Structure formats: C-alpha cells, structure tokens
C-alpha cells in the first residue's frame, strides 16, 4: 500500500526500437539465445520464408495501398503509381524486423557497398562457418 512517503514519478517516453548494437552485445554475452543454422542453405531458407510472409501480412492487413501513390477525385481513383523504393523500404523493414530478430538474423537496410546500396543485407550465424550474408533487392511494381 502506497503511503505519503511513497516516491513515484511518471515520465512520458517515446517507444523506440532496441538499438542493434545492444542486441549484438546481448547475444555476444549469452544474455539472449543465439540461433545457429546448420548450413548456409538453412539460413537462406529461413530468410526466404520470412520474406514470403510479407505477402501474407499485406493481404491480412489489406495494406496494398501502402505501396501506391493514389490520386482520388472524390471516391474515384484517377491515378495510381507505385511508390519509390526508398519510400517502401522502411515498411518492408517493419514487416521483417521482429521475425528476423527472433530468428537471430540481423537485417541491415540500405547497406552500402562499392557498387551502391543493397536494399537489405541479412546476416546469420552458420555452425562451423561463422557469420554468413545474404542480400535482397526489391523492385517497383509496374
């Protein structure tokens, strides 16, 4: 039971995602489980499976409009153009981040390479090999 001398304070905070560096540190120090993949093929299949769930999530939420710039006249659609890749990448990252985190796969959006930026780089641990990398590029709907 709270008495007069009870010292409590409420502080409004903005929800934020856990920084990737903190997750890496927690895994390194065995504070959270680290899923290991037996082969690169197992890791690739897991990444592919997670990517395939995006379609299901979009369908479930009826979120198709999120990928289009739509111009209306009243209730009538008069123009529809696909959004630019840079506009939809954060949305795709949101679709993937939780399940990749639970699968011990690091997701790096807009990874810089010598040839330009990759849409997404995925990194997972393969037993006997160490960290393995896969990339994905998304293209506009036409």
Give the key terms.
three-stranded antiparallel β-sheet, 142 residues, alpha+beta, single chain
Describe this structure in words.
There is one protein chain. By secondary structure, the protein is of the alpha+beta class. It contains 3 helices and 5 strands. Strands 3-4-5 form a 3-stranded antiparallel β-sheet. A two-stranded antiparallel sheet has the order 1-2. Strand 1 and strand 2 form a beta hairpin. The longest helix has 22 residues.
Radius of gyration: 20 Å
Q: For the report, how would you describe the main beta sheet?
A: 3 strands, antiparallel
End-to-end distance: 63 Å
Strand order of the largest sheet: 3-4-5
Share of helical residues: 25-40%
Q: Taking all residues together, what is the mean pLDDT?
A: 82
Strand content: 25-35%
- Stretches where pLDDT falls below 50 for ≥5 residues? none
Short recap of the structure:
The chain has 142 residues and is an alpha+beta fold. The chain contains 3 helices and 5 strands, in the order ααββαβββ.
